[in-house]
Every structure is written in structure tokens, then in C-alpha cells.
Amino acid sequence: MNDLSVRPLFIRPATACDVVLLSALQAACYQPAAASEGCPDSSNTGASPSASPSASPGTGVAVHVGEAWRPRSWAEVLAMPGSFALLATVREPGVRGVPGQDAEGHGADDEPVGFFLAQVLFAEGELLSFGVVPAHRRRGYGRRLLAQGLEVAQRQGAERIQLEVAENNRRAQSFYKTAGFSLIGRRPGYYRLAAGDAVDALILQRLLM
Q1: Residue 187 lies in a domain
Q2: What pLDDT is stored for residue 94 in this prediction?
Q3: Of the N and C termini of the chain, which has fewer Cβ atoms inside 10 Å?
Q4: CATH code of the domain containing 34
Q5: How far apart, in whole angstroms, are the C-alpha atoms of residue 76 and residue 74?
Q6: pLDDT band at 176 (very low <50, low <70, confident <90, very high)
Q7: Rounded to whole angstroms, how far apart are CA atoms 175 and 146?
Q8: Residue 50 is part of which domain span?
Q9: How many whole angstroms separate alpha carbon 152 and alpha carbon 120?
Q10: CA dihedral (175, 68, 86, 46) positive or negative
């Protein structure tokens, strides 16, 4: 076990001030090596704004797998009704305070490792994007971040939450099923791989109430 595996994880709400960081984290999660491995700690639905390189649902245009949103797109999503994001960071073991700490104890020197983005409208929630950077996977950070994100969605009134995952991403499907999600449908040919091949999107859902 190395030091990274025991570093404390901190999760805080993300704001419009974090859009550049969120975009960079998303890009790191979708780098080609990670995408080819189908890592469970990264997910991106096609529910992106007009400024995103991905298409919005219902447009009939396939969403490209592995494309990160620009900061402007993140700002647009965070401004949508019911949207919220979480930012996960880690800290060296034994460090109780660092320069630039805010009122909740989050330090300026904490290392960002993951993010969670969702939207809740009435009783319906949708997980829009979620990921942990490759260097910090397989340490339980993804499970903890997902659990806290689902808790926030439930507090905001969601009775169920849905997400989409590419059919060829077996590890992600296993990750979400272990977290209580089940298959309820699919979008044929919704994702487009870099080579141009179409991949179905599987629609997964979890009840929160």
C-alpha cells in the first residue's frame, strides 16, 4: 500500500469559480488510455449544453465518447435549474491545515482528484458527468464521491436518478450495478467512437427513496 491509497478524501460543492478545474479534471478522466480501459470511475452522458462538443439528447446527433466539456459549457450546465456539482480532493496524511484554507477546511494546496455533476428536476435526477482521474482510481474515491452525490440529489428531492453509459464500457456498467443501478433502456447508436463506430447508450437507474 502506498501513501496515495491512504490520503484523506474531501468533497465540497463546486461553483462557477471551479469551471476551469472541472473541465481539466474531466479531460484527464477521458484521456485515450483511460477510455480504452473502460474505467468505472468515469461517466459522461450526452446531456451537454450547446457550447459543448457533444450533442444534446433528442437532436438525433451521436455523442462522441471521451470529449470533455469546455469551461464555458460547465458554466452553462451549472447555471441550469437544479444542477449541482461536487469536487473531490485529497490531502497528505496528517496534514490538518494548509495555507489558504477556507471556512470548511478545504486547502488551496489540496489535490483535485474527481468530480460529480448532476441535475434534479422535481423527483427526477440525472447524473450528467462523473469521474476520478486515472492516478487515483481503485482507492474507493469513486464510490465515496458517487455516494455523496446521490445523497445530495436525494436531499434536493430526487426519488430516482438516471445515467447513460456506453454499451462497450463493461467496467463502468459493473461499477454502477454494484452501486445499485439497474438497466431500464437504451439509446441505439447514441455514442460515436473516435474511429466513427456507433455504440448504444445504456440507460441505468437507481431509486433513491
Answers
A1: yes
A2: 53
A3: N
A4: 3.40.630.30
A5: 5
A6: very high
A7: 10
A8: 3-97+107-207
A9: 10
A10: negative
